[in-house]
Amino acid sequence: MSLLTNKNYKTFAMVKYLSDNYYIIEELASKANMSVTKIKQLLEFNLIPNYTYRICCSISESSVLLGTLFAEDEDIDLYHKSTLSWIEKAKVALIARNNNFLEASTYLKDQMKQKYYDLFLTHKLISFGFNDLYDKKQNINANKFEEYFNKIYQAWCNGTYGICNKNPSDELSIFYKEAYQNLLNSLTESNTKTEYLPEEYLQVVNATKQYDHYVSEFTPLSFANSSRHKFIDNMLLLEN
Question: 5: pLDDT confidence band, cut at 50, 70 and 90?
Answer without folding.
Answer: low
